[in-house]
Amino acid sequence: MKAVISSGFRTILFGLGAGFAVLCGLSGIAHGEPIAAKKLFGKVKIPSPLKARAIGKYNRGCLAGGKMLPVDGPAWQAMRLSRNRNWGHPSLVDLVEKLAVDAKAKDGWPGLLVGDLAQPRGGPMLTGHASHQVGLDADIWLKPMPDRTLSREEREKISAITMLGQDKLSIHPDRWTPRHVALIRRAASYPEVARIFVHPVIKKALCKAAGKDRKWLRRIRPWWGHHYHFHVRLKCPPRSRGCVNQPAPPPGDGCGKQLKAWFKLLTRPKPKKPTKPVKKRKPRPPVTLAHLPKACRQVLGKENIPSARRDTVPLPVRKPG
What we know:
- The chain is of the alpha+beta class.
- The protein has helices spanning 2-26, 37-42, 90-107, 152-157, 178-189, 200-209, 257-267, 295-300, 308-311, and strands spanning 29-30, 33-34, 53-57, 60-64, 67-68, 72-73, 76-78, 87-88, 112-114, 137-141, 193-198, 220-222, 229-234.
- The protein is built from 9 helices and 13 strands.
- The strands form 5 sheets. Strands 10-13-11-12 form a 4-stranded mixed β-sheet. A 3-stranded mixed β-sheet has the order 6-7-9, with helices on one face.
- The longest helix is centred in the first third of the chain and has 25 residues, at 2-26.
- The chain starts with a helix and ends in a 10-residue tail after the last helix.
């Protein structure tokens, strides 16, 4: 009798252990080693065959039914094609195309050089951005498009140019033009735009050039970097269940205390080098599939998720008798 109970108990334990292993595998854990979600999403080359939907937060989500921004258009060229990041929610791709055409026709901008949007299925990226995960973020270079079609090699090697002066605290007088102001103003004018991120120095230049119409400045938000491109972020589109909007920017044009606070950060003294050795911080554990919305498993697809058989301890084989 004891032998029968003991055998049954072991079977239950094996079953529980195998079930836990399967759950770990679906969460991106293989043999106890967490698999970073960026590795799973970064290797997928095509979008999911699902209805278009932005899922989750801008920095913790994925994209269903992504649409590709054409490499070339009447008023834009996509850059860094090797990254395969010219994908987005259809509303983002449509807006980038509209901005390119409108800015050329109405503001005299030669055309857009478009940087990163998102990966085919969104999600965390292997390098670079923390956001750009739900297909609602786009980087637009501040360098005008040339009057010729760039080769694929040129699109990898050509660099964007900074709009900062030599002191890093003022705008570059020879590079920054009224057309830059008109371009960013137009981008901020579209109702579906939630925010546009620029360097604090560029925000200050826009505040100075805005004139009486200052409503659009509320959407222009200072942020680190962003001195060679501006970052357009859209609101969650209709019918994107599970998409999480960022809280609206504070009221006002953001040209007063908020901007002064940024310049205090820019001009603060650099920290002194420590005299004693500093212990290295342990690296943060990677973001895995378990950290993303559940719907992202369907977006990624079973064929792109390491299977339970490969990633977990095999089920024990019961001996007859």
